Amino acid sequence: MNREELVKQIFSKKSFLCVGLDIDLKKIPTQMLQEDEPIFAFNKMIIDATAPYCVAYKPNLAFYECYGIKGMMAFEHTIEYIKKFYPTHFIIADAKRGDIGNTSTMYAKTFFEEYNLDALTVAPYMGEDSVKPFLEYKDKWVVLLALTSNKGSHDFQLMEDRDGERLFEKVLRKSQEWGNEENMMYVVGATQGKMFKDIRKVAPHHFLLVPGVGAQGGSLSEVCRYGMTKDCGLLVNSSRGILYPCEKDAGSMEQYASLVAGKAEELQQEMAKELEMR
């Protein structure tokens, strides 16, 4: 999916919501565990409930790889399901890959050829040759880690050089020599608040993938105030806040799906207001 198509989806649906498919078998309804493929069955329910309210899905590979072949089959079936029934939704593999050039070439082949996904999260710290192989695919996106939402982000990402430039700013500046606004996004955690202002000074037009709204305490209004552009420029991810809206066995599967849809719609309505204001 290219930038123009993504922007069109955002404004037609009045949403820039990305639903993170980070499935924890300990948290899903017990009834789902009776399914042959419980992860895929749960994902199907989540996708059907949220598709009207979001523009993207982001399966996190760690939550599939940890179950071996069964987990990866669930990942593949989930991707196939989205592509078949919701083909206009943007799909991001949250895999945080990045290695020496020939290894990155194989990772790129995996996610952009074998799975034919739209985007992949990539770690930048091995430099240009570890990122460039992912940028060689037309209408595919690298989502580069820039300023993340976890507490440990301050350990390195905010370190300053002798000129006062912080490491995340250096990553933003340097990486724009490798990719552009049509094939590169940046991960910026919602918990970073006003730091979006600094991000936009260095990367004024790039899309930002923003985790941390909801369960991690990030503010959607603050993200939009400092990070939104005329093309929206944001994909805001919510995982736990949508996937697990209540106690896992609090009601029927229909009631659970309804609560999931309600959480997604609530965020979509907030996003619609933010888009109208700009």
Features:
278 residues; 8 strands; alpha/beta; 12 helices
Describe, in plain words, how this protein is organized in 3D.
The protein is of the alpha/beta class. The protein is built from twelve helices and eight strands. It has helices at residues 3-13, 38-50, 62-65, 68-85, 101-114, 128-131, 153-156, 167-175, 195-202, 220-227, 240-243, 253-277, and strands at residues 17-21, 56-59, 90-97, 119-122, 141-147, 184-188, 208-210, 234-238. Strands 1-2-3-4-5-6-7-8 form an eight-stranded parallel barrel, surrounded by six helices. α2 runs parallel beside α4 (68-85) and α2 (38-50) crosses α12. The chain is globular, with a radius of gyration of 18 Å. The two termini are 24 Å apart.
What's the arrangement of strands in the largest beta sheet?
A: 1-2-3-4-5-6-7-8
Q: Whole-number radius of gyration?
A: 18 Å
- Counting H and I runs of at least 4 residues, what is the number of helices? 12
Question: What class do helices, strands and sheet pairing give?
Answer: alpha/beta
Question: Which regions have little confidence, pLDDT < 50, spanning 5+ residues?
Answer: none
Distance between the termini: 24 Å
User: What share of the residues does DSSP label as strand, in percent?
Assistant: 5-15%
Number of strands: 8
The helical percent reads 40-55%
What form results from the Cα inertia axes?
globular
- The helix-strand sequence is HEHEHHEHEHEHHEHEHEHH
Major β-sheet annotation: 8 strands, parallel, barrel
